[in-house]
Specification:
Strand order of the largest sheet: 8-9-11-10-12-13
Number of strands: 16
Structural class: alpha+beta
Largest sheet: 6 strands, antiparallel
Oligomer: single chain
Number of domains: 2
Shape: globular
Number of helices: 9
Amino acid sequence: MRQADSLRGYVAAAVQGLGFRARDRGTHVVVRGGPFTGAGAQIGFATIAREALRIPEAAWEPMTEAIVGQLLGAAMQGAGRPGSLGYAGPALRERLFPRFIAPDRMPADQLAEDYTYARDVGGLPLIMAIRREETSIYLSDTHLAKAGGLESAWSAAESNLFEGGIGTGGEAFVRNGHAILLLESEHPRQASWLAYPERLMERLEIEPGPLGMFFSVPALRMITLSMSEETMSVAGIRSMLEITSILAKDEVAPLSPHVYWWRPGEPVQAATSYQDGKVALTLPRSVMEAVAGPESAAQEVA
């Protein structure tokens, strides 16, 4: 823990040394000032942490300064004025991707003011962003014209997600008799497949049953789904919550601790929440009866 704190401190100090404001959020540093307006930019620790493993601790500070300088330099390249992304037209559209915002990563008033186009997916805000090295730069309302308008921007972002594939791994976990499939990548667009479950099912060649599908998004670079739909139970949902918590533990960009539900023709919704420290289930009555028993209510504390 001490070493992790030291690395975060070096990152924040390096950002400040370049004349920007830095806010340590535990899993990443938010950069604001200059061209980094609105939600700012994020610097994750993955690259820096990997490099730190290769060198003595005494060399961490200059190493961090060099990497932060490279990341912010790349982010600012071509940005001629505050709020500029450095790209426009086709060059911007080919870089766009859908990206979730973790509920605790952006104040609600800022989301409502700067990202009025955001979509709600089971309670998770979905916006658009571009990627530079380890940094995501968000597409705010003021950038939409440069992307050709809202419709063109979303079309390009979604196309880029679909063309990028469903990630790698396909690792399966079995917990309490329930099989859970993990799909991951090194790109923060991975979790965004939750917003497009029909397309994900097509890629996986899965035909959802009458109970629908259960998902989780432990981190921006991960999505999981249950492979035990016909036998899903409260214990199965608890297993998904446990696996989600384990997967998110060491991630730079954790996203959500909850389980989500979807069925063809219906929107994605959060299937779990926390009430008084306990897990609450919220599902359509027919699904709730199959999962929790015929006497269950539309909402039940498990």
